[in-house]
Amino acid sequence: MARRTLPILKQLCARSPSLSPGLGSTRSVTYMPRPGDGAPRPVTLIAGDGIGPLVTGAVEQVMDAMHAPVYFERFECNGEMKSVPPEVMDSIKKNKVCLKGGLMTPVGGGVSSLNVQLRKELDLFASLVICFNLPGLPTRHENVDIVVIRENTEGEYAGLEHEVVPGVVESLKVITKFCSERVAKYAFEYAYLNNRKTVTAVHKANIMKLADGLFLESCREVASNYPSIKYNEIIVDNCCMQLVSKPEQFDVMVTPNLYGNLVANTAAGIAGGTGVMPGGNVGADHAIFEQGASAGNVGNQKLVEQKKANPVALLLSSAMMLRHLQFPSFADRLETAVKRVISEGKFMTKDLGGTSTTQEVVDAVIANLD
Amino acid sequence: MIMASQIMRRLLRSQQANSPARVSSLLLGRTFSTESNPIVATLFPGDGIGPEIAESVKQVFRAADVPIEWEEHYVGKEIDPRTQSFLTWESLESVRRNKVGLKGPMATPIGKGHRSLNLTLRKELNLYANVRPCYSLPGYKTRYDDVDLVTIRENTEGEYSGLEHQVVRGVVESIKIITRQASLRVAEYAFHYATAHGRARVSAIHKANIMQKTDGLFLKCCREVAEKYPEITYEEVVIDNCCMMLVKNPALFDVLVMPNLYGDIISDLCAGLIGGLGLTPSCNIGEGGIALAEAVHGSAPDIAGKNMANPTALLLSAVTMLRHLELHDKADRIQEAILKTIAEGKYRTGDLGGTSTTTEFTKAICDNL
What we know:
The complex is a heterodimer.
Chain A: H1 2-14, E1 41-48, H2 52-66, E2 70-75, H3 86-95, E3 97-102, H4 114-121, E4 126-132, E5 145-151, E6 155-165, E7 168-176, H5 177-193, E8 198-203, H6 211-223, E9 230-235, H7 236-245, E10 252-255, H8 257-271, E11 278-282, E12 287-291, H9 301-306, H10 312-324, H11 328-344, H12 358-367
Parallel strand pairs in A: 1-2, 1-3, 3-12, 5-10, 8-9, 8-10
Antiparallel strand pairs in A: 4-5, 4-11, 6-7, 11-12
Helix pairs in contact in A: 1-12, 2-10, 2-12, 5-6, 7-8, 10-11, 11-12
Chain B: H1 2-17, H2 23-28, E1 39-44, H3 50-63, E2 68-72, H4 89-98, E3 100-103, H5 117-125, E4 127-135, E5 148-154, E6 164-168, E7 171-179, H6 180-196, E8 201-206, H7 214-228, E9 233-238, H8 239-248, E10 255-258, H9 260-274, E11 281-286, E12 290-295, H10 312-324, H11 328-344, H12 358-368
Parallel strand pairs in B: 1-2, 1-3, 3-12, 5-10, 8-9, 8-10
Antiparallel strand pairs in B: 4-5, 4-11, 6-7, 11-12
């Protein structure tokens, strides 16, 4: 009881007029739901390993506080399992939306990654990582506003490896026109729907002429259908170099699987780190929302024990989920509250330079909800 | 006449090779210089700004009394049928003989029917490791001030094998090959480099959680070599974590060893951290102890001949070459002079934000020696 009154007291006392008007509540004046839109929607919740339970717990608390029309169907799933349990799959296929903590992938073992398995089975062909500077969070780079859209099903992650003779191993990277085209279409559509100006394709076609060449060809074809959006191409090593020196030149980036992983993590790192960047995996029928970057990194043991994991990324991803479920007002409120907490700078976890625990940040977000 | 002097030099050097040498030089297979017998090194000035910056290097080396004699070779105008490229057989033989070389930027001629120059060098000289020491230049401010790491990249196989084919229309396969032999070779070099240069930690970068057999084999080889060097800390980092850590806190890394593709991306990322390719030294190590230092920036044809080029990258690469030859005191002197000149800020070329010419910058370095 005392734990909940303290933040409310703080809110009553500390609601200072110095809040910048941009972070004040902005209720949209042009939102009209259809009758029945407010019916509660079920969402599959996979807590995962490591810091997963901590941050998904944070999301549940915040959703509860907002009285958001979602209810979670919790499932146990951890990185050690051989494959995703069938009941989890069925639940996701029924609900079509899932929120995931992190699933750890053991290195070098005989187990194929559960994250990859989920993506392939549900055909989540595009993975988004949204990297932007949060006001109030000091970083080395300014003006970062990048969305990395990464092809999620093929490429280097096809999982086709074999030992030719002892000591010689081959891995196949598969690129198909079908997959490249649909992720390019998604990227351009995203840019079009979000009023973005430029789409950049990241590749290494000077070396892998056929494979990345096919990817580029698909991108160019789709680009011709969107004449109002600027399209350019950049080689992946030059791209990483430009990201650390001049990140403001990038807007939307579309990449094959492996480069997307690297570029997304680099972009997330320059904009504030994996603890704050939201992301999601989307397919034609299903969507899974999770922390943006850091595939498979579920934090170390110390974070779990001290309960100091950063819930901001998953909170912002859950705002993405609310928007996906067509509850824009709740999404706006959650986003505004999180941004306010970061800009005030009083409750920040260790990776952002502060000393708060997860629970303190969650309480601050709940206190800032209006 | 020239042939006779070359034969003489070869005889003299083979005589000297019989003298006792340290274990490391046996590994790298080269001889030492004496005051009377300078080391011969091949120099490819290259195109565009190449000749100007090569001249800078020669000047600085003369001023520092470095016992190196340069054998200059230029890229030919026609395709040499023996090498299938514009590099002549004599040039390659020269590098094989001298075992050290310095290469300026080369513009790849457009056209078909010949191999790219870099590919020719790599295949013919069996250059298996690319070493890039990246350290922040004091005085040239970037967003990162505490970078001090070395990236060692396997240069022959991996994703760059060039084996691609179209399976059916719209489906392409590209094959990534990892062999035990190549991975062991580059891991051996990485640990040897760490020991020789006093580095405490070697990190292997991989994606073995997804590419279990290929990167798994690479990691296994690194672990085997790590056991032979117990005084060096060895760790393994997944590449996406590595990218994240590099842009947040590059001081966490010391020596990085990686397969081909990751190495390409990470070494360029690190170059970006310290200020770009115009300031980054690079050295390619080949079988039999061959070391070919090179400047990885382009030939900048637009400022060629205008005395505006920045020779820092080629100078620092030449310093790397000196370290490979174990001429550490000369290397330290020259490196300190370069860093001091840039830190002072009075003489800086255009790309660093100053107005000096190449010759003024070079003279300032010679003065600072």
